Amino acid sequence: MCIDKRVSIFIAYIALFSFVSKGIFAFEPEFGSTRVVFQTNYGDIEFGFYPSVAPKTVEHIFKLVRLGGYNTNHIFRVDKGFVAQVADVASGRSAPMNEEQKAEAGKTVVGEFSEVKHVRGILSMGRYEDPDSGGSSFSMLLGDAPHLDGKYAIFGKVTKGDETLRKLEQLPTRREGIFVMPTERITIHSTYYYDTNMEICEEERSLLKRRLSAAAVEIERQRMKCFP
């Protein structure tokens, strides 16, 4: 009986280890309240940031968004099941940059590597051999890529627009060296951002207005009934 019990415990331990090694209990960080939307010629892609995981990267990318740095940029790489990669803004835009955009685009950020896993939808910074060479190019994961874990800085995840990513995966491509690239330009026409906390406030404010309006109608009805 004791032997059977020890065998059962051992099997359970092995199963638990297997789950963990496969990322079943992978760390899932919390989103910040900011959401960014890229409006492309194939549809919108919305994403949120992980400020607790990569604060410097989030600050840098979000500042580029606020400055309009990604407007007229493009997604230069689409490798089905792997990544869709946004071009560096300094070379990828079709419109010229102003001085403030150039200054921010020229900065690099330290490699904020973490335990977060590279799975579909994750935003991961591009870089060169230098781990601290991340600039403005980043990838949106189109599948799981465990070989990237701990080597590239994850700073957010797609929250809406997976249907747009699937459209991109169906586009014709060509190979140039290590890159699989679409045969036509995928333009990021414009970008905008909003705060989810403000949306909640707007919803509550709208609900309060409706309740006050309904109360006012009821008060007037009772007044007319009691004091004709």
Structure report:
By secondary structure, the protein is an alpha+beta fold. The longest helix has 31 residues, at 196-226. The strands form 2 sheets. The chain has an 8-stranded antiparallel β-barrel. Strands 8-9 form a two-stranded antiparallel ribbon. It is built from 6 helices and 10 strands; from the N terminus they run αββαββααβββαβββα. The radius of gyration is 24 Å and the shape is elongated. It has helices at residues 2-21, 55-66, 89-92, 99-105, 162-169, 196-226, and strands at 34-40, 43-49, 73-79, 83-86, 122-125, 138-141, 154-160, 173-176, 179-182, 186-195. 36% of the residues lie in helices and 25% in strands. Strand 1 (34-40) and strand 2 (43-49) form a beta hairpin.
Which features would summarize this protein structure in a list?
single chain, 228 residues, alpha+beta, eight-stranded antiparallel beta barrel, two-stranded antiparallel sheet, 6 helices, 10 strands, 36% helix, 25% strand
Short note summarizing the structure:
The protein is α+β, with helices and mostly antiparallel strands.
Unreliable residue runs: 10-25
Question: Mean pLDDT across all residues, rounded?
Answer: 87
Report the total helices.
Answer: 6
Briefly note the structural class of the backbone: alpha+beta
What is the string of SSEs from the N terminus onward? Answer: HEEHEEHHEEEHEEEH
Question: How much helix is in the residues?
Answer: 25-40%
Strand order of the largest sheet: 1-2-7-5-6-4-3-10
Give a short account of the largest sheet: 8 strands, antiparallel, barrel
